Amino acid sequence: MAKLLSCVLGPRLYKIYRERDSERTPSGVPETPTSVTTPSSSSWDSYYQPRALEKHADSILALASVFWSISYYSSPFAFFYLYRKGYLSLSKVVPFSHYAGTLLLLLAGVACLRGIGRWTNPQYRQFITILEATHRNQSAENKRQLANYNFDFRSWPVDFHWEEPSSRKESRGGPSRRGVALLRPEPLHRGTADTFLNQVKKLPCQIASYLVAHTLGRRMLYPGSVYLLQKALMPVLLQGQARLVEEYNGRRAKLLACDGSEIDTMFVDRRGTAETEGQKLVIGCEGNAGFYEVGCISTPLEAGYSVLGWNHPGFAGSTGVPFPQNEANAMDVVVQFAIHRLGFQPQDIVIYAWSIGGFTATWAAMSYPDISAVILDASFDDLVPLALKVMPDSWRGLVTRTVRQHLNLNNAEQLCRYQGPVLLIRRTKDEIITTTVPEDIMSNRGNDLLLKLLQHRYPRVMAEEGLRVVKQWLEAASQLEEASIYSRWEVEEDWCLSVLRSYQAEHGPEFPWSVGEDMSAEGRRQLALFLARKHLHNFEATHCTPLPAQNFQMPWHL
What we know:
The chain is α/β, with parallel strands linked by helices. It has helices at residues 2-9, 52-85, 90-119, 122-136, 140-146, 165-168, 196-221, 227-248, 298-302, 324-340, 358-367, 383-390, 396-406, 411-415, 445-457, 464-474, 479-488, 493-507, 521-535, and strands at residues 13-16, 149-151, 160-161, 251-256, 262-268, 281-285, 306-310, 349-354, 373-377, 422-427, 536-539.
């Protein structure tokens, strides 16, 4: 009876992975008392085969889940319509509650039938036995056996906790349950300090900003967190996860962030290979509708690096909601996991981000300054200009206030706090982070990210002459135009390198540098172009085109 109840309440099982020979328990190694023997993969098909009763019951419950999601998103309109029609009176609400209760009882009966179907299936009984054993004792053998199954990640045991002693020893105070530290918008000047009356006047605007951010705004900014989209992408995500596990020997883990969010991660270890790239770990930060199963981490994987992918809060197996604070909390526990559990030194970690993932990448670079390098692909400097692009002009004040207070993705500000090597990849046909049309390459916000970074690091070089020539270089939409502008100014790379190395040897590596202070305008132009070319590479593609492995390069450094 206990096993039947476990089958009724147990998670949905999607797939049984093909077991790799390297992962099977050696015959001379005794198993722990709580471990469970798994049949060889030859006896079972790699895809889980539910019995007819479980299959049909699952379909009914899945359909009910979709209808509930649609009802949830449309509930404000539904309530408004029912109120206008007079259907919210007590005499009509009571019968409706009876119908709802009857429907819930029917769904509970369907769930029990699904449990009976699972109980009659030896594959599911074997799986639930392993899952229960792992929750009782998270031994290495139990975890190894559980990793052969792909199931609803909510039931996966936590593998790493943000409060683990090993992750707190070297942290500078560490995060609290309120979250890690973020850069906040500049406070008001003293002369404009709010009085109580002003605060009361602003209260309606603040309430409107909160409602917009927590309803429409968050879902527009992170559409991957919408349940219906995840449901539609589920077959693709399962296939991508199977590829990572079966072809790359990926290891899945659940991390618990300081705000309670559970973060779904996938680690591919290449340290045992002969390639030197495998000694470095690339942590991938996906876009606003990206998942590690099918996302940007495939590029460093193909390039031979060790890779750690993770999903945003509220995406696929990760729980929570993707607000900036939650995003930073998730990134913090991912980096801690890489250092303290996977055993990588910060100097061997590279942060690679695509699109909106630039926020968590720059936060990690700011908060962990010893990280080896940062690569930002198709990213931007600030969210406000892009938000204003897609919203009505009459909403300008509300949009700006909402972004600054609740959705402040200040990538450039965070990146300027990082002292290490940076590479920006600009898509020359990007249709997402341009503020006008894709053909207008100067409206690409990646340009602003580069200019703000160079102006912070080399303020004397990026004075009037340097800034002007870099903007001319950024106008180039092809490699031929780019090379033409570069050669027109006769940039002597050896001279530029010698100037920068001499300054570094005399003054140290800490930015900002005052190099170029006593230099001619011609010298500043050469240095500005040289630095711009080293920090930004063009990729002739649209926003969502996968980056080829040959374009994945480590950033330049002296």
